[in-house]
């Protein structure tokens, strides 16, 4: 049975018209609107709350559509206000979602897979093998659960931006990502525009161009190295899609989309933070419209990499700025709850181990 949050507006309309063959077009649209708004604007996830719908319609909806949602297994709140939820999916797999508030806006970082195949050496999620791709409803529900928890329904938005930067490589789950974004963008529902959504990729070249045409949000490229030698050593995916290949597709994305691409670069002490690396990175940045997010490395138990010093980080940033590029430093958030960039995994793995011990 299909889950409600797997349906876009037109899918729902189709189901309603299949169920109620006797309804005319106007009534089908009216019912679809009502139900869609109950779910996505009011946060009514139980059809019992669809108060003004006739019992016959409710009954048939429940026969056709599954309204199950993931459960919150654990919730951690960082000293800096970051919140991390560990969600248990209906099949008992676990994923993590992180809410990151800042002065004037807040971002929700969502996962696209359970585990990840890419095995980036500095990333804790990459140590966990891929278990599965998330379905559209498992992705959309991360946002719905966060809205519920933040009591955002009918009130001022507490989630301004959505970033697909949690567990997994979004472009290895392309169709479900695309469907989830269609649902997020519906202006009668959650209403996130293209400029409020960023999809991050480690450079799955064939899907970069496809995303420009079929998805159209902001793109973030997890580059993390200024040449193939270093990138090969920290991101095995580079052996399949090397820097030149990725740059070529990013140029196409920028032309199609008309927006700058965010380059994500985690600074690893004595690996990719030298002055020479900064110069090489500047050359890459000159090739297409982009801006750079420098990310402080967040260590996790057992990792061999170290965080770059503040001094080296400033030097690196100033060299790039000297070439006329836009650079920001992303402050580490939620690292006390292992909710920061590249740290997602621990809680879900620990949870699994505990279950096995029971
Ligand atoms: S950085 Fe992203 S793509 Fe790389 S292993 Fe971690 S989750 Fe996967």
Tags for this entry?
binds iron/sulfur cluster; 10-stranded mixed β-sheet; alpha/beta; TIM Barrel; DNA polymerase, domain 1; 358 residues; 11 helices; disordered C terminus; 2 domains; 14 strands
Question: Can you describe what's shown?
Answer:
The protein is elongated, with a radius of gyration of 21 Å. Residues 350-358 have low confidence and may be disordered. The protein has two domains: 2-66, DNA polymerase, domain 1 (Orthogonal Bundle), CATH 1.10.150; 71-357, Aldolase class I (TIM Barrel). The strands form three sheets. The chain has a ten-stranded mixed β-sheet with strand order 3-4-5-6-9-10-11-12-13-14. It is built from eleven helices and 14 strands. By secondary structure, the protein is α/β, with parallel strands linked by helices. β4 and β5 (94-101) form a beta hairpin. The protein has helices spanning 9-19, 25-42, 55-64, 136-149, 174-185, 205-214, 228-234, 243-257, 275-285, 310-322, 346-357, and strands spanning 2-3, 65-66, 71-77, 83-88, 94-101, 106-109, 113-114, 132-133, 161-164, 197-201, 218-222, 261-267, 290-296, 327-330. α4 packs across α5 (174-185). Iron/sulfur cluster (SF4) binds at residues 116, 118-120, 123, 125-126, 167-169, 202, 222, 342.
